[in-house]
Specification:
The complex is a heterodimer of chains A (about 120) and B (about 110). Chain A has about 120 residues and is mostly beta strands. Helices cover about 0% and strands about 50% of the residues of chain A. Chain A has no helices and eleven strands. In chain A, strands 2, 4, 5, 6, 9, 10 and 11 form a seven-stranded mixed sheet that branches. In chain A, a hairpin with a 5-residue loop joins strand 5 and strand 6. Chain A is globular, with a radius of gyration of 14 Å. Chain A starts with a strand and ends with a strand. Chain B is mainly beta and about 110 residues long. Chain B has no helices and eleven strands. The model of chain B has no long low-confidence stretch (mean pLDDT about 95). Chains A and B meet through strand 5 and strand 10 of A and strand 5 and strand 10 of B.
């Protein structure tokens, strides 16, 4: 049973950079694509971007200028960096597995981490 | 971006009821649509993909239909554990967009 677990700070100051890590267990990170998604009461669920196991990325244009997603295959982890944080970035951040392995158009999310609340405040 | 509109936003129903939730896309997304269930304090859980394919382990009372711009999620007989929020998500093109959600409440 594949499991994903987010880790990182729960509190970030305005203008700083958020760094989150997702650790994948029960399976290899080298078989699928991986995503970050966030959720707020106001905007709902927002897809942030995805990364393949070889490191190719696609980002949501709404966040593209501020986002970097990286993969660390030896550690079976992938990470999210979001810079220039503001109060509007306060959200629950989820990491998730994308069903697609690149050979099919299956860009939905079949395993999710429990989510981590990130608050932006001074 | 393709926008996804769900209706209703809230639905009151009783155990045993047949429940239908609608998701409309602002342009055709073929059958590239997924449905998720989310309970309070938990991550979303995949129910349906490719508009009508049931994810492994999901009870058969859940079903999805539609193509193009109009889709439905149906729960044939609502069970106590089904009171939750439901979201649709298109994956026709980037960026992937989720619907605003439908909360199914106890009547």
């Amino acid at each position: 049973q594949m499991q994903l677990q987010e880790s990182g700070p729960g509190l970030v100051k305005p203008s700083e950079t958020l760094s989150l890590t997702c650790t994948v267990s029960g399976g290899s990170i080298s078989t699928n694509y991986w995503s970050w998604i966030r959720q707020t009461p106001g905007k709902g669920l927002e897809w942030i971007g995805y990364i393949s196991y070889i490191g190719s990325t696609i980002y949501n244009p709404s966040l593209k200028s501020r986002v970097t997603i990286l993969v660390d295959r030896p550690k079976n982890q992938f990470s999210l960096n979001l810079n220039s944080m503001t109060a509007a970035d306060t959200a629950i951040y989820y990491c998730a597995r994308v069903r697609s392995s690149g050979s099919d158009w299956s860009y939905f999310f079949d395993s999710w981490g429990q989510g981590t609340l990130v608050t932006v405040s001074s | 971006d393709i926008q996804m509109t769900q209706s209703p936003s809230t639905l009151s129903a009783s155990v045993g009821d047949r429940v239908t939730i609608t998701c409309r896309a602002s342009q055709s997304i073929s059958s590239w649509l997924a449905w998720y269930q989310q309970k309070p304090g938990k991550a979303p859980k995949l129910l349906i993909y490719k508009a009508s394919s049931l994810e492994s382990g999901v009870p058969s009372r859940f079903s999805g239909s539609g193509s193009g711009t109009e889709f439905t999620l149906t729960i044939s007989s609502l069970q106590p554990g089904d009171f939750a929020s439901y979201f649709c998500q298109h994956y026709n093109s980037f960026p992937f967009i989720f619907g605003g959600g439908t909360k199914v409440e106890i009547k």
